[in-house]
Amino acid sequence: MPRAAVPRNIIIVGAGIGGLAAALALQTDGHNVTMLDSCFEFAEAGAGIRVPPNSARLLLRWGVDMAKMKKSVSNAYHFVRWADGSTIVRIPFENIVENHGAPYYLIHRADLHSGLLEAVKRAGVNIVTGAQVVDYDFETPSAKTSTGRVYTADLIVASDGIKSIARPLLTGQPDVPRDTGDVAYRILIPGAELLKDADLAPLITSPATTSWCGPDAHLVGYPIRDGELYNIVVCATSRNETTDEVWVVKGSNDELCQRFASWEPRVQKLCKLTRDFMKWRLCDLPVLTRWVHASGKVCLLGDSCHPMLPYLAQGAAQAVEDAAVLRQVLASTQSLSSALKQYESIRMPRASLVQAKTREHQYILHIDDGEEQKVRDVLMKRNEEQNPVFWGWDKRKNWLFSHDAEVLGHEGANWRTSGREARL
């Protein structure tokens, strides 16, 4: 039997991770979902992605076959100094399931997308590819594609990313994503190459997230696909590689090696092993005035309303939380307009806070050597409110990782009190 208070016809625009999560959550709850995406075929793309417990629990609960995916599970978060590789702090994750109710997965983005897509198809969602939405009627509501076809529904969920065309139409305000001044190098190295080197092998054999913190840059590395690949994201001050028109450019191994020639030996070795990679402009948005159109029939979800920088690894996770809350409010409220207002009031404060803290970490992790850096390193070791890493203090870590977004009773609802533990 459907849980939905009123089963509805729903259109979701955009088949990224957030859109697929919403489609799965809503279809399995008794709604009739159609997905529209501009691509003609879903091909393997992207690099690694971290799936923290606050989103892993939801994906497991909704039937995504995580066991089928090749993946690693992070057993620690290791912050190290850029110059000599010495430890700033190592935060153990061995008891992540006991403490937070779900694993902390390290996955190839393409594998996560494929697993979600498989679950969405199994649930019966109608997926329309080659359907680029170019206009909306928010009152009907309807979405018009580049071929002229018009799709109507009871509810439209715009999950069309940071370059969303729905967002300025919905808010009534023109917007331009903010260039943060950083670019992200997204790199994959065969795990076998690391295993040949005694210095690099532990990065594969002891799965953890390693973050090298240095002036104007930091590198985050972790194994994916059971160690078949080592994923690296380099977030560094832009050298004008991208433009307002072109956000993604090809990287150069020579430039990479030169840029990090003074960093610790492991970083230099990883740079030399790097093959082709792309560099991405990192952008976000100011907090929006609203996520829901005045008609009460259209809402935003994921990067279309709260695009996040990668510094807290919460971008996709927060989109999955959006999907969970949308599912619950539609199940508990007969009025669509009231449900969407509730969705906005619940999700906007939490996602906006994470978004703001993510931007703060751009500065925290890139501090140049000196007194400020020494104070930061000392505070990072302390499990207290003054720790500059958002989840470096247990209270904040529990608020983030242990949150069950399907519990609507109160902010920070914890998986331990929800009675809805994920199937592991």
UniProtKB/TrEMBL annotation:
GO molecular-function terms, A-Z: FAD binding; monooxygenase activity
Domain FAD-binding: 10-354
UniProt xrefs under Gene3D superfamilies: FAD/NAD(P)-binding domain
Stated family: Belongs to the paxM FAD-dependent monooxygenase family.
Name the UniProt record assigns to this protein: Salicylate hydroxylase
Pfam name, any one: FAD_binding_3
Keywords (A to Z) from UniProt: FAD, Flavoprotein, Monooxygenase, Oxidoreductase
Tagged with keyword Oxidoreductase: yes
UniProt key word Oxidoreductase: yes
